[in-house]
Structures are given as C-alpha cells and as structure tokens.
C-alpha cells in the first residue's frame, strides 16, 4: 500500500523508481504512479525478477523456437500457509489475498510464456478456514485464462496451503516444466519430439544452482543500464499496470470487489 505514495514522492524529487510487485493496491494508484514518473521524466521499473532469470528465459526460448509445437495448455500454482496477524491478510495494506502476492507470479508467467495478452478470465475464490485470518481477504483463488491464440491457462494460489510452486507448458510436440518461482534452485525439465511423430523425444533436464541474490542483481543491473543509457526498462510501469488490471478482472470474474 506504500508503493504509490513513495513512487510519486520519489518522482517529484527527481529520482528514478524501482518498485516491487504487485505495483500497487489499485489500478488507479498504478496509473497515478506512471503519470507521476512521466511528468518528472524519470524511469519506473517493476521488479519482475523472473523475466530476467536464465531458467525462465530458456523456457521462453524453447517455446518461441517451436520446440513444443503449438502450445495448448499452461498449468501453474503458487501459494503458502500464511499466519494470523501478517500484513498480507489486511486488505488495505495488501490490496487483496494470495492472488496479489504470489498468484501474480502465475499470471505474469502465462503472459511472458505465451507472448500474448489475456482475452478473458473465469475465476473462483474460497475461504475454508474460519480462524480469523481471512476477515478481509480470500484464502484461495483459482482462475483460467484464454489467450487470443486459443491457449488456455489454469492457475491456483492460496494462503491456506503450501502449494507446489511451478508452471507446466504443454504443446503438440511435448512439454516443459519449471519448478519453483523462488530465489534458488530453478529447474527446467522438458520432453519434446525433434522429428516426426513416433520418433524418440528429446529429454532436457537443466538445474540452476544459482542462489539469491543473483536474481535481484540481474534486475537491478538492468535498471541501472536503463538509467545510464536512457532506455526503457523491459518491465516498465505499464507492465505492472497490465497485471493490476488483469487481477481486477480475475476478482470481478470471481465476484470479489477489488480495491
């Protein structure tokens, strides 16, 4: 909830801004952040660290090269058990439940993996544990996204369970899976045909042993380069705004009123 205030204050002070995701707690705040940075002629970058991470970039490369054939389905999940009293469970501070905090990884991944923008959403939310943790935010959210090409993505996020953190992309020639949206141990597995149907598949299993803070180093190096060379960041404010709008659409599809 502090992102908008301090981004706007920083912009007015003539400072470039590197902001964590989610960008803000509301679409209108995200729009104000972008406007303030443009008015002050400073750069605004949103910290989508996995868009700079080698394992995820390799997954994107395989898809773009056509290794999986025509992508059909994407599955993804990310979630953890949140404890009573944490700020994430306070909607005015967080903007929403697990979708805003960790579900956004699944949402953003489906966008950078397909290279497309969502066409439509269906969604459901639930709160199973009536223990005082979820008085202002939902416990679980699932949603499906349809993309213009026809690709369908199915995603889940939770504050009530430790979900397996991953995405899996299935296409006409094979599949790939990246385990973990975390800071270390990124692992890419892929299985796809390089020849005609009936030929043996190519099996790829790559394990990244890089540890924190290299993921953060890469994105801040990129931001620094953009400042020094006067370039637009790969993940500018507009990228964060898109996810804010999509999360609002997901909530609307689930019958939840977003901030």
Describe the protein's architecture and organization:
The protein is an alpha+beta fold and 259 residues long. It is 34% helix and 24% strand. It has seven helices and ten strands. An eight-stranded mixed sheet has the order 4-5-6-3-7-8-9-10, with helices on one face. A two-stranded parallel ribbon has the order 1-2. Helix 2 (27-39) packs antiparallel against helix 7 (237-253) and helix 5 crosses helix 7. The longest helix is centred in the middle third of the chain and has 17 residues, at 98-114. The model has no long low-confidence stretch (mean pLDDT 95).
Question: What is the overall shape?
Answer: globular
Uncertain residue ranges: none
**Count of extended strands:** 10
Number of helices: 7
Q: What portion of residues belong to β-strands?
A: 15-25%
Q: How would a textbook summarize the main sheet?
A: 8 strands, mixed
Helix content: 25-40%
- In N-to-C order, the SSE pattern is HEHEHEHHEEEEEEEHH
Overall mean pLDDT score? 95
Keywords:
259 residues; 8-stranded mixed β-sheet; two-stranded parallel sheet; 7 helices; 10 strands; 34% helix; globular
Concise description?
The protein is an alpha+beta fold and 259 residues long.
Write the layout of secondary structure elements.
Blueprint: H1 3-12, E1 17-19, H2 27-39, E2 44-46, H3 54-64, E3 71-79, H4 91-94, H5 98-114, E4 120-126, E5 140-146, E6 152-158, E7 166-171, E8 174-179, E9 187-193, E10 201-207, H6 214-229, H7 237-253
Parallel strand pairs: 1-2, 3-6
Antiparallel strand pairs: 3-7, 4-5, 5-6, 7-8, 8-9, 9-10
Helix pairs in contact: 1-2, 2-7, 5-7
